[in-house]
Specification:
By secondary structure, the chain is α/β, with parallel strands linked by helices. The protein has helices at residues 9-16, 21-27, 32-37, 55-63, 126-139, 158-166, 180-188, 210-218, 237-247, 268-275, 290-302, 321-330, 343-355, 378-387, 400-412; strands at 46-49, 72-77, 80-86, 114-120, 144-150, 170-176, 197-199, 222-224, 255-257, 280-284, 308-312, 333-337, 361-365, 390-394, 397-399, 418-422, 425-427.
Length: 428
């Protein structure tokens, strides 16, 4: 029997690629041979630590051979998470003369070759936050910034925040306490040639002009603005209408997420025309009128640019089942759950999914009381499962024949299928 350490180096490295970072640390402590064999830099591109570095200690860390080509550095300490993704070789950090503002920043050592930065629940001082945005402006190398749960942001100057964000390609400011002046400065800043994606979910924009937000979103490729947790979007009714008027003329916006937003004040035809020009639309627990919902499915069924739709928590019991089924068959990825769907709706969805030439992924579910799935033919269900790449059935009541047909189709398919059944009640 061949021992693990006696395997050829290429095979051993291929095996260790599937080992967790924690187990990899334990492996290198087994023996000197294990240490030497597992010091291949390709195994240490994603490193997890529980301590921060300063300029000097970061340099010493990168001089260790196995860490010399680290790509992602994940630091978790006392509930705070920092994830840093470097450019290809972190050892290429160029020495630059530090300014007084740079000194003392807990992230200053990382910015010289940093590509992406994620900060989750970080309890940094106001001066440190300001230094982060100063570094973004000065260095100009950071491409993506994600900040989640930032509460002490009031001391950050609006102009500094807006200037820093304009330097990025992707910005995600989720569940933050940005105030009116800061949000207005961000949304009204001159057009950025680099920024393509922005997520301000959880931002309280009730006092911010919907027209200003719309003009900002219209220049992007992806935009998200909804409620998250206890942080409510609370866009005023009149501002929601102004927002849609601005994005209607956009030539670039492809992805829009307005989950948990109250959109009932938006004119029905304006709403359907604006979202019909998108590629991806997420409306999870958004408040819509019956006319908006019917108009959305009618637009998709007839002609629209939409390819992906996440529609959760909105009534469709007033929409013709055949119209919903036809709309689903025109899309590539669909999530439709908790939408008070009747048995006829489920039947039409799967009948059109069977004949669809575009549908690849379907996530479908009832509500907390279960969904009436009895009208869906087991044979049709099995054929649909067998031709899709992914399917999720949730909060539904299935017969044994339906369940067996779906399971058999997922196993017999020549392609890998991500098939899930969650909270499904099997009826005998």
């Amino acid at each position: 029997m061949v021992k693990l350490l006696e395997l050829p180096q290429e095979i051993l490295i291929s095996i260790l690629c599937y080992v967790s970072f924690k187990d990899l640390l334990h492996f290198v402590l087994v023996s000197k041979t294990a240490h030497d064999k597992a010091s291949e830099t390709s195994l240490w591109k994603h490193v997890k630590l529980k301590t921060f570095f300063n300029e000097e200690t970061l340099g010493e860390f990168l001089k260790i051979e196995r860490y010399s080509k680290v790509q992602i550095l994940e630091i978790e300490r006392k509930g705070q998470v920092i994830i840093l993704e470097f450019y290809r070789n972190p050892l290429l950090i160029q020495e630059q003369e530090e300014t007084p503002e740079d000194q003392g920043s807990f992230l200053a050592a990382y910015f010289k070759n940093l590509k992406k930065l994620t900060l989750i629940s970080c309890m940094a001082e106001c001066a440190d936050w300001n230094n982060i945005f100063h570094q973004i402006i000065q260095q100009g190398k950071l491409k993506e910034l994600t900040v989640k749960t930032w509460l002490n942001c009031a001391s950050t100057p609006p102009d500094m925040l807006a200037t820093a964000i304009a330097k990025l390609e992707v910005v995600k400011m989720v569940e933050t306490s940005l105030n009116h002046d800061q949000l207005t400065a961000i949304f009204s800043a001159p057009s950025s040639p680099s920024l393509t994606e922005a997520d301000f979910s959880g931002s309280q924009v009730q006092d911010v002009s919907g027209s200003v937000i719309g003009k900002f979103a219209a220049k992007l490729r992806k935009f998200s603005l909804g409620s998250v947790g206890s942080h409510k979007c609370m866009m005023a009714p009149r501002e929601a209408e102004s927002f849609f008027q601005e994005i209607l003329s956009s030539q670039t916006l492809q992805y829009l997420d307005l989950s948990k937003c109250n959109l009932r004040s938006v004119d029905d035809s304006l709403f359907t025309e604006a979202v019909g020009k998108l590629n991806t639309l997420k409306l999870e627990w958004a408040k819509l009128t019956r006319e908006q919902t019917a108009g959305l499915f009618s637009r998709i069924a007839q002609q629209s640019c939409l390819q992906q739709l996440a529609f959760v928590g909105n009534h469709v019991d007033h929409v013709q089942p055949q119209l919903i089924g036809k709309a689903v068959g025109k899309l590539t990825k669909v999530t439709i759950e908790n939408s008070w769907m009747t048995g006829e709706v489920f039947k039409e969805i799967f009948q059109h999914a069977l004949n669809s030439t575009t549908l690849k992924e379907l996530k479908i579910g009832g509500d907390s009381f279960g969904g009436d799935f009895s009208l869906v033919c087991p044979e049709v269900l099995g054929k649909v499962v067998g031709r899709l790449r992914a399917m999720r059935l949730k909060d539904l009541s299935l017969s044994q024949d339906q369940c067996m047909a779906a399971m058999a189709a997922s196993k017999l398919s020549p392609n890998y299928i991500d098939f899930q059944m969650l909270k499904v009640n099997i009826i005998r």
